[in-house]
Fold this sequence. Notes:
By secondary structure, the protein is an all-alpha fold. It is built from four helices and no strands.
Amino acid sequence: MKFTSLLCFVALLSVPAAFASSPLQGLKFEQQKQQVIKDIKAVCKPKTPLSDNDFANKVIASEDNKLHVREATLALDRNNKQAYKDAISKVKCPAQ
């Protein structure tokens, strides 16, 4: 009986820790997304002003670009600057 009570207590203590990391993960994802969009915009230099969301939607309309953006995000997450630069350079600029 004591083991079951202890197990329930430990489970209750670990729940807040799981929820505490979730907002930070969302923030990290948003920062990475903004960094990738900023760097792709610097390479592509769109002629007409587009919001970041519109530009991102145009970029990821291509399946190849989706893959390269995913590679860039993973490289950022792993702090691999060379792989990040390579992935960004592979992105094909959307038609203007």
